[in-house]
């Protein structure tokens, strides 16, 4: 892959599990992928293992495991250990895999996850639950070393696909522990439940957290409406972010990712999937911070600054890439470590589609536009003015013969905007060609 102006265009590096550094003008990547899953005898137990080993020749050469994991399942329960990505949804056409707080943009970090492996019916065939509990370690080069990352979610699903299915849930993340370069080591497991409940710290923590919530908490509400017909599946999804009580109580009601996914069932459809998304994160509960602790039971309002944090300065990044939507950008870098996001307030739209040109040729196209205004500056204004606009596009054609032992794809991409060039409007072009060989089982 290659890009002009010493960078790759957005859609050549975004949502690629952190494999490709956008600041490289050319990249050659040799990857070995191996995944295996199997039922254990005639039991209810099964296991899965996987690895993705990448050798990159770029401006900075690297060899690494992008994925390395194992999992064990018993009926509807599952335990996963290692570095594994989020399951791809909406045909891989969403800007952020349908979830503002958890994308497939950054390299997976090591973690342990226990929960359900599917939606489980509860007493009836119209009510289901799903969820998991997870603890991970952000072991990259970041501002607060060895930060722990907790994640938990719980989802409820009502109805059947042929009528109408409604899914609602909440995702909760907490960065906790670690060693701050100035303040030293933060409290660890002894304060674990204070971190999880966003409780104020006691005398054993730094002044900033004695009144404020311990750790860095954030998350999303997720809502999905889906219906299936004979020739079409339609899904409307909403992802609503929160940083504190104001977001959880919908003071920032206008900030959402809203998407529509249409999947067509025809075997050789020229158009198989189409995704349209509208995103807006400009409100962030208001431009002023009011109701600070100890007033109003410590529940502040305003200047949420999504996925950034005053102590955990690297924010929701891993290996200098956004773990959240890649539209939160660019990642600020200082002294070789990430310092969160320069721009968290933006609005725009995205269109993605794929289909078949013939029995062996497939196509995919992505188009994204955003208007970006930076962050609240604490004085009623914004940190970027005038706004920075960004337009990114990608077109891809893939060929896979009926034997399915090989596949070849070519992509062209283009950017026009000023988000990644310090306010200077820049046109950037790029291209990629990839060859895959699939070994027989």
UniProtKB/TrEMBL annotation:
It comes from the Bacteria. This is Capsule assembly protein Wzi.
